[in-house]
Amino acid sequence: MLGRTDSRRRLLLLLVGLTVVAGSLLVRLAQWQVVEQASLAALAREQTTLRTEVPARRGSIYDRSGTVLLATTIDRYRLAAAPDQLPVTRRLQVGEELVRILDLDEEAAATLLERIRTDRPYVVLARDLEEEVADQIRRALAQGTIAQVTLEPEPIRVYPQVGGDPSTTLASHILGFVNREGMGQYGVERYYQDLLGGEPKTVLAQRDVSGRAIPETAQIVDPGVPGVDVRLTIDAGFQLALEQELLATYLADSAVSVSAVVMNPYTGEVYALASEPAYDANDYREVAATAPETFVDPVVSKVYEPGSVFKMLTAVAALQTETVGLRTKINDSGTLKLDGGKTQVDDADRRAMGWITFEDVVAWSRNVGAARVALRLGETTAAAAATLHDTWRRFGFGALTGIDLAGEVGGLVRDPTVVPWRQIDLANGSFGQGVAVTPIQLATAYAAMVNGGRLIQPHVTSVIGDQALAPAARAEGLVSPALSSSLVGLLRHVVTEVPTYRDRTLVPGYAVGGKTGTAQIWDATLNEGRGGWKTNKFNYSFVGYIGRTIPEVVVAVRIEEAKPSVVRVGRIELPVMSFELFRRIATSAMTMIDLPEPPAAEPAPGKVDEGLAPSPESSSGAAP
After folding, report:
1. Is 420:393 a contact under the CB 8 Å cutoff?
2. I want to staple 551 with a disulfide (CB 3.0 to 4.6 A). Which of 56, 72, 507, 545 is the partner?
3. What distance separates the 2 farthest-apart alpha carbons in the chain?
């Protein structure tokens, strides 16, 4: 007979075990329901909640009048579908109806049909739909010919003004564009992205089974900040005229590019800034695929060797240090041996003009004369190099001007205290070779020469929201008022002394002055990688001023790698020369822009202070 298998002790142990387990479950349940209830509920809501950031309405951009709209945002629609909610046979029907409504070509139709035949819960079928097309889709939904598709508002940045080239938009290099993610690229759009773009609105909503937001549950948790409007200093009418002039020159000269900037020398306001080729900001994706280099603005983002426009910096250094005076005689020998005969510089025509005044050295753009003066800036080559380099730096070369456009570069200026200059380096620098600058730097430096010695900060924006921006100065007293007056007169002497400039640069009834530059172009790929100068290809520049009685506008022009129609020793002719382009632009500036009255105390053009340097007799024959 078998014994009994139960025991009081075993039952007691089982009861204790069950009690412990039940107690543990009760404690854990209490912890979930009481202690962790809030966090678990939040986790559950998070798993079923969709957090969406809705971009703020982007601010618009206007010209200086505040009436011409240069950039704005309009509403278009994105067409999306939930194919997984449609029977397989129904997907094809819906797709074919959408192809008809959207009037798609064969390739686009195939793409749409492929997307709607998937089992995905969400696909984008089309973008940038206008209101008229959106209305057709709404009617089709109401009639039941299509289903499980939605129209989602999609803000699109548009640039409504046509540029000087009809295939471009106005001021494309100034404005830049906005990509599909709502981020500004290049120009003002990038520089003022945070202000124009504002801060997005945050919305929470419950998800449906497809993971999409349920509109009825939407809740705004952060209203965001709308973008602010911006008013530029640009005159839209003059900007268009400038772009048309650049296009005509670009075509006539067969140039790689043509650029110009027009600014107020006292305030730094930029009235127009453009380059050709430009682009259509409304079609930036096509530009990015075919010619992305067009996005880069040559006025602020590309450097080049400026050539003889830099002789004015040599003049500043020489006159300021009283190394020479405007009437000091300099021996223009046509050729100058340097560095113990190992190197030399030549005048463009390789002919000697003999002993001529320093103002004529600048006017006739004599390289040898400029080199001789540069070598006299100090007792040694090192001291002379330090003086010239210091002048460059004080006038802003090698540093950013601070213009409010994205992508500005500071240029390339070699420091002689880091790598000592030879005599040839000093000579080349005296006439703008061996240094790389931007047109906006040139315009800013010349503005300081003619405005009394104030290095202003150029800017393209005048009002942000309802706040006007005040002009800013980077440095004061670069030159004295007397020297500024002499520089104004020297620039006028250039265009009145040389017959070619006098005939094709002066504007009747206005005070005009300026300086040309024709610079060779170095190509590091030539001569099996050893580098060399390009043949018969040059950079052509002109920087000058125009005004009714004193300088009121500064214009800097660059023609890159144009094809000369005449190439002779000492003479290069283009269908449109840089100084002719300057005259056209300067004339339009005076007749089209409502210019403010210039400061009454500024020096009058043509007045030359001859007490700034030694007399011709004391310096003749002393040049190296």
Report:
1. no
2. 545
3. 148
Name all contacts of 140-143 with Cβ < 8 Å and 24+ positions apart: 140/97, 140/101
CA atoms within 13 A on the CB side of 359: 23
Q: What does the alpha-carbon distance between residue 407 and residue 452 come to, in Å, rounded to a whole number?
A: 29
Least confident of 24-33, 78-87, 148-157: 24-33
Residue 432 near residue 487 (C-beta atoms within 8 A): no
pLDDT value of position 212 = 64
User: Of 561, 305, 558, 302, nearest to 429 (Cα)?
Assistant: 305
Instruction: Please give the single-letter amino acid code of residue 156.
Output: I
CA–CA dist 250, 231 (Å, integer): 29
**175/438 Cα distance (integer angstroms):** 19
DSSP 59: P
Tell me what pLDDT residue 92 has: 92
Instruction: HSE, CB side, 13 Å, CA atoms: give it for residue 141.
Output: 13
CA atoms lying within 13 Å on the CB side of residue 79: 26
pLDDT digits (tens, 9 = 90+) for 473-484: 899 999 999 999
First to last CA, the chain: 137
Q: How confident is the model at residue 603 (pLDDT cuts 50, 70, 90)?
A: very low
596 class by beta-carbon count within 10 Å (0-12 exposed, 13-18 middle, 19+ buried):
exposed
- Domains annotated for the chain, with CATH where assigned, are 78-160 (3.30.70), 236-619 (3.40.710.10)
Q: State CA 79 to chain mean position distance.
A: 35
What are 151-201's pLDDT values in tens digits? 988 889 999 999 999 999 999 999 999 998 899 999 999 999 999 998 876
Distance between CA atoms of residues 611 and 124, nearest Å: 76
* 31 alpha carbon, distance to own chain's centre: 61
* pLDDT score of 123: 92
**Which residues, 6 or more positions from 89, have their beta carbon under 8 angstroms from its beta carbon?**
none
Model confidence pLDDT, tens digit, residues 425-447: 999 999 999 999 999 999 999 99
